[in-house]
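Cross-posting from the modeling subforum.

Setting up a comparison between two proteins and wanted a second pair of eyes on the formatting. Protein 1 (sequence, then structure tokens):
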Amino acid sequence: MKTDIINTLLSQIDFAEIRGTQDNPEIVKYFDEIGFDGSSLKDETAWCSAFANWVAKTNGYEYTGKLTARSWLNVGEPTETPEKGDVVVLWRSSPHSWKGHVGFFIRQDEDSIWVLGGNQSNKVCVRPYPKDRLLEYIKLNKR
């Protein structure tokens, strides 16, 4: 288990988008601290990868520096035995689409992968995803 990543994730639970013209400064921070201008992107911009990048960077792990979820398929090492804190990359729309979602592994059961991530129902939370949406589990390496 990556305790450092889990502790960082838990510190961000329930940070959520603010509807309307205001932006949650915590979400803007995720963009800013990985090299994007959060004030121009707003908290309504798809931010699951920005959040994952911020968590990995904050804890000294490799990260993609990109805002696309599938960019996480190009870092770390694939694993078939994920531990808490490993990266989960899921497809969205179609397994062959460029769209995806990224978060951190918490657990799995017979049907679902429980992911703690950003931009899940517009906030940081734990949510189950169907196992058939999995593209890859990734173990991150320290930088």
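Protein 2 (same layout):
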Amino acid sequence: MWAMVVKEFRQMRRDHRALALMIALPLLMLVVFGYAASFDVTQVPTRVVGPAAEQAARQLPGILEVVEVRAEQDADEARDALRAGEVPVAVVAGASQVRVLVDGSQLFTARAVAAGLASAAPTVDVEVLFNESLDTAAVMIPGIVGLILVFIGTVITSLGMVRERAAGTLEQLAVLPLRSRDVLVGKIAPYFLVAAVDLTVVVVVGVVLFEVPFNGSPWLLALGSALFLLVTLGVGLLVSSVSESSGQAIQLALMTLLPQVMLSGLIFPLEAMPVAIRSIAYVLPLTYFVEISRAVMVRGADLAAIAEPLLLLLVLGIVVFGAALARTRRDLVPARPRKDPTARQQAGPVTA
């Protein structure tokens, strides 16, 4: 029995991926998620507008962190700023009245502001925009769309490619008169189409069954989804290229999936995370898709408002998919037969 125990320990030591999954990943999750798993928003970036903006900025409760004072702007411009996602809260300070506009698409931030003002400044008029009833489904359904795209693009795609390699059909594709990129596009096109169908179904069900508002352009959501899916398909190809079995592919896919779920703002608000943890969120593609989907569906944002996250997704897609294409291409290039240096000597001298 002791020999079997020693054997298993040696085999475990050789499997670096399993060691990382069993030791490094739990520690990383404990540290990162321990700081990230918080719904407590203590400070909210706030823009103060109106003729009495300077005076009102000095009297706001501590939960409202004044980042901009623009006395020349009015309530309509403050609404446009919230719709564009520039700030989550805007204070309109008139000559005789102070009104607080809150972005309802940022659910926990809006709830924290409403609760903080109710206790610190109960006479202030608070108006919640875009999600007046602070409905959880209105902010969760747009994020769940991204979660489905991550699952299909990363997990399902990586498993499909790994099965091709295990069955030996990937090597058979290498001898076909096709270019490497043609083979890859043909392999991932079905996953892209399935993801598009799932996206449509989830959005329609969310709007019809859960009464999630869809105030923006469907084409903008489709554009953001396509760019985001480009990134997730690239991650799936990368995972499959370094995996030798379906089990390894699932392990690596989960290692890329869990941080995105926890740190993207899908569940826990980014404003509640420490700066160091929040910086990790800004390199995760799901962070930008959640921002895009909520902006388009809930706030009705236009192209200019989501241009930055769209551009960042495009850059991430080019980098990740390019790396995946370069690494996977090696599996599609048939190995050239090695030349035998003794063949010429065995053939003997050539006589006239």
